[in-house]
């Protein structure tokens, strides 16, 4: 396959960036998207040109570090397909196609270099309340604290969020409410998450706003591109807990 790549190049956070075109030949349809970028970087290195910087780690669709916007879509998956960039294969593109590749676009995700962005704001949201209190000592038996199956399943579904940031990149407001809602709902559905439930939602939403993420206006683009299928309803659960927390004088 031959491709024309239009890639965002930016030397650093304080430097203006621009789209740069590259012609790439010899792309196999069985390559993953990141393997295609590896091939491009090999060619650039052989020509003594600066390779394209991009984030990646597991390359198994687990960690979400690989996220970029491909042809205007976060992770670039075809409609109806849920996958991360590293699990997107070049058979999804036609021979001779032009492919636009950009980083996540959000003020709270400053560009480090080229396609790599700083997502430490997500870590700070987790630090604000994404934890539970637990007594030290030996681990309790797995069945010591029973949870209804429906709540347990809902907690598990939200726990699958990998914090990739696709929801932010897709949202016109650059809101991280789907990510924040997944982390809050995950713990709110379990008995272990009840002691800090209402303090948690207030602290995490406050940190979300402090980081500079936008407001949620229920457009739904976040859920449409989420590689793990976190439902939009999780934001409704966050809102219900937040309203309830406002009426609790001690915040608990």
Describe the structure.
- The structure is a single chain.
- The protein has eight helices and seven strands; from the N terminus they run ββαβββββααααααα.
- With 252 residues, it is of the alpha+beta class.
- The protein folds into two domains: 3-102, Beta-grasp domain (Ubiquitin-like (UB roll)); 119-131 and 147-246, Orthogonal Bundle (Fumarate Reductase Iron-sulfur Protein, Chain B, domain 2).
Quick synopsis:
Helices cover 34% and strands 11% of the residues.
Keywords:
252 residues, alpha+beta, Fumarate Reductase Iron-sulfur Protein, Chain B, domain 2, 8 helices, 11% strand, elongated
Q: What value does the average pLDDT take?
A: 94
CATH fold topology of the largest domain: Fumarate Reductase Iron-sulfur Protein, Chain B, domain 2
The total count of helices amounts to 8
Number of strands: 7
Write the layout of secondary structure elements.
Elements: E1 3-9, E2 18-24, H1 33-46, E3 69-70, E4 73-74, E5 98-102, E6 111-113, E7 116-117, H2 120-129, H3 149-159, H4 166-170, H5 177-188, H6 197-210, H7 221-225, H8 233-246
């Amino acid at each position: 396959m031959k491709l024309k790549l239009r890639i965002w190049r930016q030397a650093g956070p304080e430097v203006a960036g621009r789209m740069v075109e590259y012609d790439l030949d010899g792309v196999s349809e069985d390559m993953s998207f990141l393997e295609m970028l590896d091939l491009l970087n090999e060619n650039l290195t052989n020509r003594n040109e600066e390779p394209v910087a991009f984030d990646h780690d597991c390359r198994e669709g687990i960690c979400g570090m690989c996220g970029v916007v491909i042809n205007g879509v976060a992770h670039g998956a075809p409609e109806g397909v849920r996958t991360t960039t590293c699990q997107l294969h070049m058979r999804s593109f036609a021979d001779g196609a032009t492919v636009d590749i950009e980083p996540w676009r959000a003020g709270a995700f400053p560009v480090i270099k080229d396609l790599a962005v700083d997502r430490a704001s997500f870590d700070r949201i987790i630090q604000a309340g994404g934890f539970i209190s637990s007594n030290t000592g030996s681990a309790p038996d797995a069945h010591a604290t029973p949870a209804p199956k429906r709540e347990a399943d809902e907690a598990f579904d939200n726990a699958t969020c990998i914090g990739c940031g696709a929801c932010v990149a897709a949202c016109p407001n650059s809101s991280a409410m789907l990510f924040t809602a997944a982390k809050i709902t995950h713990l709110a559905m379990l008995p272990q998450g009840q002691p800090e439930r209402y303090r948690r939602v207030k602290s995490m939403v406050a940190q979300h706003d402090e980081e500079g993420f936008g407001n949620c206006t229920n457009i739904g683009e976040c859920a449409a591109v989420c590689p793990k299928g976190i439902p939009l309803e999780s934001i409704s659960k966050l809102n219900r807990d937040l309203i309830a927390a406002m009426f609790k004088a001690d915040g608990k």
